[in-house]
Amino acid sequence: LKEENASLRSKINKLQIFSETQADKMRKLEKKLEENKIKEEKEAQDLEAMVQHVEQNLQLMTKRAVKAENNATKLKQENALLQVQLKNYKTENEALRSGQSASLAVVKRNADLALQNLLTVITNSRSSIKQLVSGAESLQLVADLLKSIDRISEVSEDGQ
Q1: pLDDT at 128 over 90
Q2: TM segments (predicted)?
Q3: Is the pLDDT of residue 119 over 70?
Q4: Helix or strand or coil: residue 38?
Q5: pLDDT at 130 over 90
Q6: Can you tell me the distance from the alpha carbon of 134 to that of 129, in angstroms, rounded to the nearest whole number?
Q7: Least enclosed by CB within 10 Å: which of 2, 35, 75, 146?
């Protein structure tokens, strides 16, 4: 019986040591799991903040593009009006040359004024078109950034 008791005590001691070792491992794993949860939460918050920032930039660029588009439309209308005006001045100029209207100097001044207005509209139109192109390039950059965010998310999920 003494031998059997000694053997059982030895087994109990070994089981207690094993149990303590397993409990330590479990505590370490729980701590690591908690650290991973905290890390994932922070990454998710950072990603959400980045997405919000990108969305704000996208809204701002969309606003700018719409404004530039409206400006371009307005300038096109003004350009068309000035072209009609220029055509009228040219007609009047031709009429003056044939002696059917008032002074040639007035017609020349009107034609010069129309030409100056037309050149101003053309210059403004070019500027608006450049703004539209810049806005489109910015929107493309944001779209590429959003695509890369999806890739980052896919890599993070695969890496788990």
Answers
A1: no
A2: none
A3: yes
A4: helix
A5: no
A6: 9
A7: 2
Q: Which two tokens stand for residue 121?
A: 């509209």
Give 117's contacts (C-beta < 8 A, 6+ positions apart). Answer: 82, 85
Token pair of 25 as six digits: 């491992």
pTM score over 0.90: no
**Tokens 């040591």 label which residue?**
17
Predicted local confidence at residue 41, as pLDDT: 95
Query: What count of other Cβ atoms lies within 10 Å of the Cβ of residue 121?
Result: 20
Two tokens, residue 13: 């001691």
**Helix, strand, or coil (residue 56):** helix
Instruction: Show the tokens assigned to 3.
Output: 């031998």
Type of residue at 138: S
Q: Could you tell me how many residues make up the chain? A: 160
Measured between alpha carbons, how far is 52 from 44 in angstroms, rounded to an integer?
Answer: 12
